[in-house]
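Run: sequence + PMT -> complex structure.
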Amino acid sequence: MLKGKHILVGISGGIAAYKIPELIRSLVKSGAEVRVATTKNALEFVTELTLQTVSGSRVYSDVFAAINDHSTEHISLPDWCDAMIVAPATANVLGKMAAGIADDALTTTICSCTARKPIVIAPAMNDKMWESPATQHAVQTIKGWANVQVIEPASGPLACGTEGKGRMPEIEVLQEALEYALAEKSLAGKRILITAGGTREAIDPVRFVSNHSTGKMGVALAHSCARRGAEVTIVCGAMSAPIVNPFGMIRRIDALSAQEMYEVCRKEWPETDTAILCAAVADFTPAEPAGEKIKKQPGQTEMNLRMVVTPDIARTLGESKKATQKLIGFALETHDEKKNALLKLERKRMDAIVLNSLRDEGAGFGTDTNRVTILSANGNSIELPLQSKSDIADKIIEAVII
Ligand code: PMT
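>> structure
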């Protein structure tokens, strides 16, 4: 989503400024073009040369510099950008923003941007400065402005040696906030239920049966829906993929076993517009999980585990589906891919099923990429070549929900 976008990065004078070159690198890596505006104090924490090198562009920090364009940067930079991010935003800059004070390169640029372009503000400062009534008043004022999104600072150890709220969120959170700011809110008002990860079926208190799902595909879908303004509930099995949630659009519910996931999904379904079942749910679970660790007996050469069928979440949702609801499933196959996926689509009364095959390199479990075919109940079929799970998620959402 950031590919080809013009991003204006504003930096004010806080210690967290030293992290911003990493943000710029990450934005450039995602295909964005970046320009930078700073306060003079910001350049005490991060050098102009570093910012210039990572952004590939001259840094705007002095309103009266002889080399400035005739068009005056504080107007032309907001004209040029698709979105702006101010990180870190100090108490001083927040106060100036709220009061409409524009007295340097950064604040004049912000002032001429706020009415026209999406702006993400990432406050970062000492916890006592964050708690100050003046800072809180400024933040509340800014939060009320149409184009502005404020990311709450994180809690944890602060540069001054204390602990508290005031840390700048991680780079991924800042980047996700920009993705959110840039996306059209085509799913506003929609409630989307997503399952992700693999279930764990207990054999005894220390062992389980599971699969290789990392949750990457499900999380990419959750991010894609949240950016478009949906209220997202993600039901998570065992998974390692991090959920990045700058504005709290994603509600997470953990449900480790197939039975737990089934109960959560059944409860959530009546209030859901679209369910996307991406989790790799066990079809079988140990019939009688042991209460204590199973011990190997002397001379024992084998162990038989009796398994019983788990509840089928997709089928249950499909059976009670209303005309206004959509049910999208996934199928991970190793052979007869299309035939097997179409059988599931029909049996589980899905509106569409997303087929991925373990025979395709770079597709399926654990990879950052996927290659899928979307098979719809109306007979339509869309093949998506190998690309990032994030891009695949966007295309699935565009094809089956919007
Ligand atoms: O998490 P990643 O590492 O990124 O990997 C992504 C993925 C490979 C897990 C994902 O792309 C995927 O294919 N998910 C579905 C995997 C699967 O187990 O599909 P299935 O063919 O077994 O099940 C078909 C559908 O029924 C799925 O929507 C599944 O969620 C659902 N199901 C299955 C069993 C069950 N008891 N209840 C269900 O609802």
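>> summary
The CA atoms of residues 151 and 247 lie 7 Å apart. The first helix runs from residue 20 to 29.
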